[in-house]
Amino acid sequence: MKYIFEVRIKEGHTAEEYADIWVRASELIQQAPGARGTELHRKIGDPNTLIAIASWSSKAERDAMEAEHTPKIDEIIRSAAPFVEVRPLGEFEEPAWVVHPPAAST
């Protein structure tokens, strides 16, 4: 499953500031059972809007990690709170099917 959220950087701060915090938190969160990686993307044309995607083996494993945050993870996340607004976009199941175009011939 995918957990997706939008991050808006407040004026006077940068996406790079948030990315540093996000990486530190992600390194710890990704040690949890079922964690399958994270991605952080900058919106084209709006460098202060990011989208974060966390991949998990299951919703239950993500929920378990969320219920058992370590104080260190909470501390890292709180350090970003003064300069970002985070809006969860939701939890999404893996697609039932994926369409990939055929490889281009060379």
Give the gist of this structure:
32% of the residues lie in helices and 35% in strands.
Written account of the structure:
It comes from Microbulbifer marinus. The chain has one domain: Alpha-Beta Plaits, CATH 3.30.70. It has three helices and four strands. β2 and β3 form a beta hairpin. By secondary structure, it is an alpha+beta fold.
List descriptors.
alpha+beta, Alpha-Beta Plaits, 4-stranded antiparallel β-sheet, 32% helix, globular, monooxygenase activity, ABM_dom, Antibiotic biosynthesis monooxygenase, oxidoreductase, monooxygenase
Number of individual domains = 1
CATH topology: Alpha-Beta Plaits
Could you say what the CATH architecture is?
A: 2-Layer Sandwich
Number of E strands: 4
Please provide the ordered H/E string of secondary-structure elements.
EHEEHHE
Strand content: 25-35%
- N→C terminal distance: 35 Å
Biggest sheet strand order reads 2-3-1-4
Look at the helices and sheets and give the structural class.
alpha+beta
Give the assembly state of these chains.
Answer: single chain
Number of H/I helices: 3
Specify the overall morphology: globular
Mean of residue pLDDT values: 92
CATH class: Alpha Beta
Radius of gyration: 16 Å
Give start-end ranges of low-pLDDT stretches: none
Organism: Microbulbifer marinus
Pfam families: ABM (PF03992)
Keywords: Monooxygenase, Oxidoreductase
InterPro entries: ABM_dom (IPR007138), Dimeric_a/b-barrel (IPR011008)
